[in-house]
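Worked example

This section walks through a single chain of length 129. The input is the sequence exactly as stored; nothing has been trimmed or padded.
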Amino acid sequence: MKAKGETAKAPLKESFSTWRKTGTIIAAMIGIAAGFTVTWYTAQFATLGLLKQVALLDDLTATGVNATAQIFATPFCILFGALSDRIGRKKVMLTGYVLTLLLLFPLFKQITHYANPELSAAMATAPVP
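Given that input, the structure is written out below as tokens.
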């Protein structure tokens, strides 16, 4: 757009000039925020709840495991931020959302298996229909 000379002279005014444009921007912001919120909430609180209430780890161990996982995950925010600068945010974000949907239950199953092998074995021998 810069090369063609098509950049907006007043981008905020042009973006919010009509109710339709404003509504589209608000819907996009809510959609993006919802995706990030669900992913972050799952990584933080659902995993912690799984470790404490399902895998039956004590509070200190569960919190320590969760905090350690977040420390190791933090550099990936920088890596994927840099990747999004190269290939576009939409591709990176959608890939992250799809991977979350595909991997969430298998990862929770693995967490349960390693945190409480007896529970995992019991679940395998007596599955709930």
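What to look for: The chain has five helices and no strands.
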